[in-house]
């Protein structure tokens, strides 16, 4: 791939820990037009920031879902993410465009991000563990069908190891004469709720390529795009397989920390230790650090569970059963935490939830996002429904249609009607708590903190004894107990102040 920019487009060997390259400076193509296939949680914010920080690059985000594209072109974006609206509105119509015209965008692009959904398979070989790569293959085949010139194709979706190899085979077998393709892996490391901040100031950018002149040139071209705002030493180049595995490994290790502190929270509740104090003490060790040591009712989101299950499946495929079982336990601990929390609610409410009103505050999997994928609230509400409870639910950002979709069993006729008999969506936390036997904090939205909500007002409207179950460690337990609440908190026990 010839071009005019022989700059240091990959991280110098003495500043990087990934594999060394034979050539640090290599001729490569300047990227002028980017197409992103997929206008979801990854593609939308990522390419919006690329356009925002790269005014000389035309970025077009494409999706077959007309309603989603219309939303991106409106004042009501389809994704809630702090800072996203400001970024999109600053560059939309200038060098950032949203369209359903996939073919034209592919033809005109120098570089194409494949940022489509890769859910866990629900049937067939690998059911419940392996990633469903149907959308990735479909997008790859469409690129091969439409492209009439050389393209750099970048896998941006979270994928299993060696997916790039499959994409390359499809492109090589189906591409038009005169059109050649280079494959790169460029995994995302975004945390929902801080995605824009993560994109503007990333810890690192990984670019995986083949260790060939063409592969290194393609990596250099993409590195130049990120270099518009990311320091060169933070753009790490490596081989394709290392890049793919690094994404799975990062999420697995983060989830492992959460499951570890949640396992310790059970011991804290049984002994009178305080999990916040334990995590603080442990986090002061510079070898460990404080991040992701916050106990909770369980982790959620689109990546953690899916990526760990992918790692389990990969380990089993490589005939490494002990490795597979190790990672499987991280997920099992997460599910165990939800079951344990549910049982704590039941036992405190006199061993029955039948007919009782539970005010569930929060449905998103974490604060500052409207994403509900693998949210702990979904699992808890299903458990509460099985116990014949009445659920009053409030979340400040999740759309009502999304809540009904998540709570209804797919493919089960009339299940939504059954859900609506037990679940009520409320306009505020106060409305949800009115007449409730218990308030259950499932998402750590700031507005649920006792510095924001008037818990004296809430207490006055609840049945007595009034319980609060803090699944996110955001409340001042002593303050609420002084009001009159019976407070149960993850990782804390009522015997905490007793030496009996």
Query: Uncertain spans, ≥5 residues at pLDDT below 50?
Result: 1-9, 19-24, 496-500
Q: For the terminal residues, how far apart are their CA atoms?
A: 75 Å
What class would the helix/strand composition place it in? Answer: alpha/beta
Assembly annotation: single chain
* Rg of Cα set: 25 Å
Rounded mean pLDDT score: 90
The main β sheet shows up as: 6 strands, parallel
Structure description:
The protein is 41% helix and 13% strand. 46% of the residues are buried. The protein has 500 residues and is of the alpha/beta class. The longest helix is centred in the middle third of the chain and has 32 residues, at 240-271.
Question: What brief labels describe this structure?
Answer:
13% strand; disordered C terminus
State the gist of this model.
With 500 residues, this protein is of the alpha/beta class.
Question: What's the helix and strand layout?
Answer:
Layout (H helix, E strand, L loop, with lengths): L32 E5 L5 H11 L4 E5 L3 H7 L11 H8 L4 E4 L2 H7 L2 E4 L19 H13 L4 E5 L7 H12 L6 E5 L9 H6 L4 E5 L3 H14 L8 E5 H32 L3 H9 L20 H14 L3 H28 L8 E5 L14 H11 L3 E5 L5 H8 L7 H8 E3 L3 H5 L4 E4 L13 H7 L5 E4 L6 H7 L2 E4 L11
Parallel strand pairs: 1-2, 1-4, 2-3, 4-5, 5-6, 7-8, 9-10, 9-12, 10-11, 12-13, 13-14
């Amino acid at each position: 791939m010839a071009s005019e920019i022989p700059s240091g487009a990959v991280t110098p060997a003495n500043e990087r820990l990934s594999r060394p390259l034979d050539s640090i400076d290599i001729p490569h193509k300047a990227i002028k037009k980017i197409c992103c296939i997929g206008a979801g949680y990854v593609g939308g914010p990522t390419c919006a920031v690329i356009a925002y920080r790269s005014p000389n690059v035309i970025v077009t985000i494409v999706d077959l879902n007309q309603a989603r594209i219309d939303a991106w072109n409106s004042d009501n974006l389809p994704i809630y993410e702090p800072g996203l609206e400001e970024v999109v509105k600053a560059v939309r119509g200038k060098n950032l465009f949203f369209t359903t015209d996939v073919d034209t965008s592919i033809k005109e692009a120098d570089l194409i991000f494949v940022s489509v959904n890769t859910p866990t398979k629900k049937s067939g070989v690998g059911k419940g563990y392996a990633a469903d790569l149907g959308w990735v293959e479909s997008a790859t085949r469409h690129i091969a069908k439409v492209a009439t010139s050389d393209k750099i194709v970048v896998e941006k979706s979270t994928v299993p190891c060696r997916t790039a190899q499959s994409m390359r085979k499809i492109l090589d077998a189906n591409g038009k004469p005169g059109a050649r393709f280079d494959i790169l892996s460029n995994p995302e490391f975004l945390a929902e709720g801080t995605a824009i901040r993560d994109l503007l100031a990333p810890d690192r950018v990984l670019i995986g390529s083949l260790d060939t002149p063409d592969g290194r040139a393609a990596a250099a071209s993409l590195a130049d795009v990120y270099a518009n705002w990311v320091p060169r030493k933070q753009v790490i180049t490596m081989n394709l397989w290392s890049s793919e595995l690094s994404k799975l490994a990062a999420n697995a290790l983060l989830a492992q920390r959460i499951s570890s502190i949640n396992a310790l929270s059970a011991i804290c509740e049984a002994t009178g230790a305080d999990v916040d104090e334990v995590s603080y003490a442990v986090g002061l060790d510079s070898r460990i650090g404080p991040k992701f040591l916050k106990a909770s009712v369980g982790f959620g989101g689109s990546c953690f569970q899916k990526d760990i299950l992918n790692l389990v499946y990969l380990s089993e495929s490589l005939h490494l059963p002990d490795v597979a079982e190790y990672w499987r336990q991280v997920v099992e601990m997460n599910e165990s935490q939800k079951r344990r929390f549910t049982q704590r609610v039941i036992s405190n409410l006199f061993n029955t939830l039948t007919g009782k009103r539970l005010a569930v505050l929060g449905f998103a999997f974490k604060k500052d996002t409207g994403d509900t994928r693998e949210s702990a609230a979904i699992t808890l509400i299903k458990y509460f429904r099985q116990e014949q409870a009445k659920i009053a639910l409030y979340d400040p950002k999740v759309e009502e249609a999304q809540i009904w979709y998540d709570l209804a069993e797919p493919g089960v006729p009339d299940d939504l009607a059954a859900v609506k008999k037990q679940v009520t969506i409320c306009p505020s936390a106060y409305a949800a708590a009115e007449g409730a036997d218990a308030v259950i904090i499932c998402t750590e939205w700031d507005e649920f903190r006792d510095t924001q909500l008037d818990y004296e007002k809430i207490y006055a409207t609840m049945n007595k004894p009034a319980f609060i179950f803090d699944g996110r460690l955001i409340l001042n337990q002593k303050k609420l107990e002084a009001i009159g609440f019976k407070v149960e908190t993850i990782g804390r026990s009522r015997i905490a102040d007793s030496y009996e």
